[in-house]
Amino acid sequence: MSGIASAPEGRLNISAGLASVAVAVTLVALKLWALGQTGALSIAATLVDSALDLLMSAGGLVAILYAQKPADEDHAFGHTSAEDIAALMQAALVLVSACVIAGAALRRLLSVAPPEIASEGAGAAVLGVSVVLTAGLVLWQRRVVRRTGNPVVAADSLHYVGDLMPALGGLVALWASAAYGLTRIDSIVALAAAGVMILGAGAIGRRAFDALMDRRADPKVIAGIEGIASGFPGVRGHHDLRTRTAGSRIFVNIHIELDGDQTLDEAHAIGAALRREIIRVYPQADVMIHKDPVGVERHPEDPRIGR
After folding, report:
1. Strand 249-258's sheet: what is its strand order?
2. Region 158-174 average pLDDT
3. What CATH number belongs to 7-212?
């Protein structure tokens, strides 16, 4: 299939997936210890988020590996839709966990007795390590995305950027507890973290659902493909551009209009060159091009298909 990553790009994508899993495992272990030491809900929120990160990172690594499998007899368009199925399951898990965290935070806020938080220093140290590890992972993932354009790694990086907010918020909550005894800030931070998780779950689930429903590609991508086709040497026009997404792939079908007097070899060369150019700009694309002579009349039983 077109658009499959080269061996060096594949290794970079896999390295980003492995780094993500390693960081998630480390953070889960550290935050479990910190939660036992402090009992802080803000740490509980970041612990749940890190546990979900571990599941998502492991799923993302599997998806990266699985998506590189070539098409076969049973899966003529590849295997990338598995990413969307996994994403829907992850979104549901994030939503449930966020509701649990929010419920616990509300119970603490509404209780008469203020919550007790202990060992703020130990908790702050763990969250500090969490921020450093997460920031380092995001920097590496973004470097990989610049090299390979892999959308799975890009999405994982965006998710970890979102994780920095509750971790930094947890640091503020522990500092306020230790310095001023404001233990209820912990619950407020936990509520904010739950809100971020709910928003993230909605975004992940919506993207996965759209892909499973064969939603068209991003309008900017469609405009970019149209721009490439419109200005390509030998192409006199184009129509019936159709796109759909599946996991990390974009499937593109386009009809181009060529000089009808040229040879089949010449027409093929133009179409093949256009296909290579689209894939160069959008490496995740799988492109099929149909060639029509300029001025050909559409058969009345062949309706125009939109994008």
Report:
1. 237-246, 249-258, 285-293
2. 66
3. 1.20.1510.10
